[in-house]
Amino acid sequence: MPEPKKAKGTLTIYDVATRAGVSIASVSRVLNGLGTPRAETRERVLKAVHELSFVRDGSARALSNGLKEVVGVVFRRGDEALFEDEYESFLYIDVINRGIETESQRRGFDVLMSSVAFNDENALQRLTAMAGKTDGLVLHDRMLSAVGIARVASIVPVVTLAGSPTPESMNVRCDNESGMRALVRHLVVDHHYRSVAYLSGRGDSPDNRARARIFEAEVAAAGADMQTGPAWHGNYSAAGGAAVVASLLDAGTALPRAIVCASDQTAIGAMHALAQRGIRVPQDVAITGFDDVPVARHLRPPLTTVRQPMQELGAKAFEVLYSRINGADGAREIVLPVQLVVRESCGCPRSASTVASRGSLVGKEG
Amino acid sequence: MPEPKKAKGTLTIYDVATRAGVSIASVSRVLNGLGTPRAETRERVLKAVHELSFVRDGSARALSNGLKEVVGVVFRRGDEALFEDEYESFLYIDVINRGIETESQRRGFDVLMSSVAFNDENALQRLTAMAGKTDGLVLHDRMLSAVGIARVASIVPVVTLAGSPTPESMNVRCDNESGMRALVRHLVVDHHYRSVAYLSGRGDSPDNRARARIFEAEVAAAGADMQTGPAWHGNYSAAGGAAVVASLLDAGTALPRAIVCASDQTAIGAMHALAQRGIRVPQDVAITGFDDVPVARHLRPPLTTVRQPMQELGAKAFEVLYSRINGADGAREIVLPVQLVVRESCGCPRSASTVASRGSLVGKEG
DNA sequence: TAGGGTCCTGTAAGCGCTTACCGGTAAGCG
DNA sequence: CGCTTACCGGTAAGCGCTTACAGGACCCTA
What does the pLDDT average to over A296-318? Predict the structure, then answer.
């Protein structure tokens, strides 16, 4: 096999210079819009560039400029096994990535994407190699341990998503606390529901634990009753939500007036299980979700939930990284406001949904 | 604002060499596993690398090696406007990309992603700049005109997806012709349906035109009746499929025994419209889809369709590109086999579905 | 006409890495 | 004991680009 070394036909700035009858410096200046070249020089360079359809080599520019104009994004890849059912739960990753990508285009950056499997041993090694090809890294939720983060952060700036800042890295997240708080208040204060429960997500998720904490605090503050315990532990999936409700019902437990689900997926499962037993939502039991996935509005009844600005989250992550790459030393943590989206599954009448889903902004930007 | 020029703390191979008390050549050799360094030299280098947590700069390596170990992927981005409803139809893009990414990891490559909006004027400019940062490009369906392709292909190797090869570029696609052929035969030969129709996709899609052509040829060959005309023009979306069926019904048209839909989305819409009029599937009208999206199996009745190996399509695209990058001069077109997935919407009994969805491979690899 | 600006353009250094080439050292052999 | 051979490791060139610096051409003024 022939050596993969330099492709034969690679054009360089020298070829352009020769053809235009100028020096490489002039070519470079024209291409970068620097200096004040004579109109004629400019045109000759442009003409040569066009005729040869010359494109500057990115690595050479990067080496010379000390700027690659590339950021890396690292995210989880679902195993093949759970592809079918769990796919939807990975969807939000793509939405966030889209946000990163769109924003980076505005700055002339490109995005290097790398997924890591759940059981990927040498992820760290791959990531460090990848870091060497970028100006900065965006790490999705819980991609790396704290020491892993410190390691890559010593190579390039790092911003994590939905985590927390470390001495070396920055973080961007949504203000889920406020979202949960608004949700619970809506149920126990606005609707006067006196008994509620939190159908949780995976127990090992810090996000889930934070939500549970807020939930409990708010319910207690309002003096409402609360059902808790292992019977209420879900896992963020629809199947998990359905299983929890089904087994509660099988055990003869009296359901609370309202169930706050850890995610929309969970809510979908719960609603499904309730429907099977003929229990009406929201008349008998109110249900709420979290995330506002696209189908949430099309459920019967339409799901009351909390919308996280995923695309904006990605955009913000890039923005923060970008300013850091440029040497600015901004906030180490950004918190984006979330929005309580009131539809009908909480017991609100249909007319209310449109109104409330607009205005009611909840949260703060930090 | 401080110059974005060279970050202060950047470690280089010189730092490692100094710390290890060897020359940069030795460091490089150890890092690349070349030559036969003495064990002691090796260890000292490795120790220094580890202590400094040194990572080689990607651009410098790329410049020196003539190989960036990066491929670019370009795909359509939905406008914000049609995000909600059309999102699902963009899903397959992410599946393909996942295939590209996974395969490229195996070769130590990373993937540079760039989306282009529908109305993006200077897409070509962005893409050429991006090409300069990569060793090769994968272009999703109809991203660029033929001249656009020629332009970028003069910079780096290019493989297109679901298109056709050009003198400068390669192509990877699924054998939809065979899929359509198998589907139509299943309906007119196995089921003996004597009247059929093709509910088309967007008229400007070559893919759609090819499917229509095969459809007509097969139906004619089997001597069955065929309904055609503008009334049968859909647009790949569920709404489009529903609209076509509804207006047909409104016009009092007698529906054919079977309707072949251009996509699963279309089939979903069509089935919805039929259900609203109380027309039973498959007893009154058989319906088939195309694509085998994840929900297809969960519809009522489960949808008979043609599965395209999306992930594999991506993987193959990378593979082809990779060997081309390495100078190999392989096939300019790869055609992947598709699979007829027989479920119940065609009129087959439930039991048949499992069996047929396994074995029946249709198509050839070219 | 000489001196001093202004503009523009070219020369060359250097970005961090790989690697061809060469020189030094040690081992093997007559 | 001197010379060949093998083996390592260092020096330096070069990848394609940007840009500091310097030089040339031209115009203006005294």
Answer: 91
